[in-house]
Amino acid sequence: MRHPILIALAGTLVLSACAKNGDAEVQRALQDLNVVDETNLNDVMLTVGDPEEAVRYFAGANANDPGRVDLMRGLAKSLVRAGRATEAITAWNNVIAHPQSNSDDRVNLADAQIRANQWDAAAATLNAIPPTHETFDRYKLEAMVADSKKQWDKADSFYQTAAGLTTTPAGVINNWGFSKLTRGDYAGAERLFTDALRQDSTMFTAKNNLVLARGAQRRYDLPVIPMTQVERAQLLYTMALTAIKQNDLTIGKGLLTEAIDTHPQHFEEAARSLRALEA
């Protein structure tokens, strides 16, 4: 007669154990969910969130959970986005002191140092990175540092390497072209800006730089590239200023007039320049 009672008791113990195991699994699932939610929030803060709000978020997260390298990186990246490069340098140095830091962290430190105009420090940071760490960001910064030292051959090599390490090279090719422009190699700059626009036909900076390169060669006709009506007016204005700077005043006046006529709205900057030229 006792067997049913024992069986019932055993069943109760099994159910109790299953319930405890179930609770533990639920807690683990909730913890995993919280980690996923936090990761998503971190990603949002690093990309689409307001930069200053992201700084406050990661500063608070670091204070509540100190020593987490992902939160330390988040704060450093947010400071860069907020334009607070000097503070970002301190934040990246804290990341590098962490045992889980890596070479990408040093690349990001060099980026912050360049933004803060600390070129020698950036060069030293990049030199400390193993040569086997070959990334687009590393070579892009190496090219910029070489530019700052007027080491043109090294700069060209680094720009070329960087362009080959990304599927979206328009930006770095545009930077390379601007480097050529500052050296006075206007034909070389024109080729690179044209190449950048082949990669991304919407990049207005490359369009404007291309007009500067052509104007510096006294070629005052606009290149055959895709452009909106507003862009055309702005590019004519850039070409006019280039002509005026080179004392080609009649051409400059004509380009200013064309820019004003082309713009779909009132083009105050061009109109003001034209009034000054006529005065």
From TrEMBL:
Signal sequence, start to end: 1-19
Alphabetic keyword roster: Signal
Domain of life: Bacteria
InterPro entries listed in its UniProt record: TPR-like_helical_dom_sf
Listed Gene3D superfamilies: Tetratricopeptide repeat domain
UniProt-listed Pfam families: TPR_16 (PF13432)
Protein name: Tetratricopeptide repeat protein
Native species: Loktanella gaetbuli
